Amino acid sequence: AARICESVSPQLNSGQLMPTSEAECTVVIAVRGTSNQMEVLTDLGFYAAVAVLHFFDKVSPLYGTIPVHVLGVILSNGRSSFLKSIQAKMMEHVEVTVKLLQHNYPKDTLVL
Fold first, then answer.
1. What is the Cα–Cα distance from 56 to 43, expressed in whole angstroms?
2. More confident residue, 60 or 94
3. Could you tell me which of 80, 81, 83, 96 has the fewest CB atoms within 10 Å of its CB?
4. Beta strands in 14-56 (DSSP E)
5. Residues in contact with 21: Cβ distance below 8 Å, sequence separation at least 6, in sequence order
6. Strand arrangement, sheet containing 26-28
7. Quick check: 10 and 3 in contact, CB under 8 A?
C-alpha cells in the first residue's frame, strides 16, 4: 500500500517529513501479480469460469437473460474446493489489510 498526501502542512515525524495520520490522503492498495505456481492456480480459478461463461454467452445469450445471482451460483459451484480455499485465503488477506489501513487512517480514501 502507498499513502499519497498533498504536502500542505507536514510535521516532523521520526526525523522524516511525513503527514500525520490525521491528514486526509489517498491510500492505494495493489495486489501484486502472479509469481508462483499456487498463484497461477488461483488465477486460473478466477478466470477459467468467466471464460467458459463468455463462450456460452456467444452460443446463447446468458447476460441479461439470467439473473446475476444465478450466474454467481453457477460460478461458485463450478470451482473446486481447493481453488475456493486458496481464493478465500487471498481475499481474507486483502480484507485484513484494508481494515488495518482503515483503522490507522480513518479519514483517508482507499483505492484497491
1. 20
2. 94
3. 81
4. 16-18, 26-28
5. 104, 105
6. 2-4, 26-28, 109-111
7. no
**Do the beta carbons of residue 19 and residue 25 sit within 8 Å?**
yes
CA distances (Å), origin 110, targets 7, 20, 74, 76, 107: 18, 16, 31, 28, 9
Contacts for 11-20 with beta carbons within 8 Å, 24 or more apart? none
Tell me the DSSP string of 86-112.
Answer: HHHHHHHHHHHHHHHHHHH-TTSEEE-
pLDDT for position 86: 80
Give the DSSP letter string of 48-100.
HHHHHHHHHHHHS--BTTB-HHHHHHHHHHHS-HHHHHHHHHHHHHHHHHHHH
Least confident of 45-49, 94-98, 99-103: 45-49
Compute the average pLDDT of residues 2-24: 63
Question: To which H or E segment does residue 38 belong?
Answer: helix 37-59
